[in-house]
Amino acid sequence: MDRSRGSPVLKQFFKESFHGILVTDFYAAYDAVAWREHQCCLFHLLNELQKVNQRNASEEWLSFAKKTKRLMQDALRLRAQKDFSPERYRSRIDRFYERLLDLALSHYADADTCRLANRLKKYRDELFVFLTHPDVPATNNHAEREIRTAVLMRKIIYGNRSADGALTQSVLMTVFRTLKRRGYNPIETLVYALRDTIRTGQLPPFPPVIISND
């Protein structure tokens, strides 16, 4: 937890180069993190198209939005095929990139269309990573669900009064959520750990994975 949402906070979190595939929304601060590959959330893109549709009825925008939505939905449908593999559908995937470039590089006059086309151009290599790496999701919905409790808590308590309080909360929530995802009851596990620490003078190791939920 930090007062800022800027790139310096991310750089502090990712102290060394990140070698995985990061799945995020389009928040620009993530651009500062070094990664091998990056998947941008298609849900955020589709949601943006829907929001603009409610206030922009220009012919150019409606045509652009329709084509962009169809492209993203076609990519998601392909990934949902039971026999999907990047090798089997290589030509289809290549065609998706061609359609994406056609949308991104065309000339537009409408302001919303220009803005979204520029986004497609900027992130053209980060929209279909989930097709070349089948273990990567197309959205960051999982991450959104994971931090939901923390977001609700922040809204209820209006944040922390001190940096120490924020650090304590972030550590405790991390421990609790990790224990739950590993298949343990967080309260029972922490009580046992505290009793063991009092008895032996040493904190027991973090318990191994029993199950991995959602």
Give a structural overview.
The chain is mainly α and 214 residues long. It has two domains: 7-142, no CATH class; 161-200, no CATH class. The chain has ten helices and two strands, in the order αββααααααααα. It has helices at residues 7-13, 42-53, 59-79, 90-105, 111-122, 129-132, 141-146, 148-157, 163-181, 186-200, and strands at 21-24, 37-40. α2 (42-53) packs antiparallel against α3 (59-79), α3 (59-79) runs antiparallel to α4 and α4 (90-105) crosses α5. It is elongated and about 70 Å long. 12% of the residues are buried. The mean pLDDT is 90.
Beta strand %: under 5%
Task: Report low-confidence residues grouped into runs of 5 or more.
Answer: none
By secondary-structure content and strand pairing, the structural class works out as: mainly alpha
Q: How many beta-strand segments?
A: 2
Characterize the biggest β-sheet.
2 strands, parallel
Backbone CA Rg:
22 Å
Described by its quaternary structure, the protein is single chain
Q: Count the domains.
A: 2
Order of helices and strands: HEEHHHHHHHHH
What is the rounded distance between the termini? Answer: 24 Å
SSE inventory with pairings:
Elements: H1 7-13, E1 21-24, E2 37-40, H2 42-53, H3 59-79, H4 90-105, H5 111-122, H6 129-132, H7 141-146, H8 148-157, H9 163-181, H10 186-200
Parallel strand pairs: 1-2
Helix pairs in contact: 2-3, 3-4, 4-5
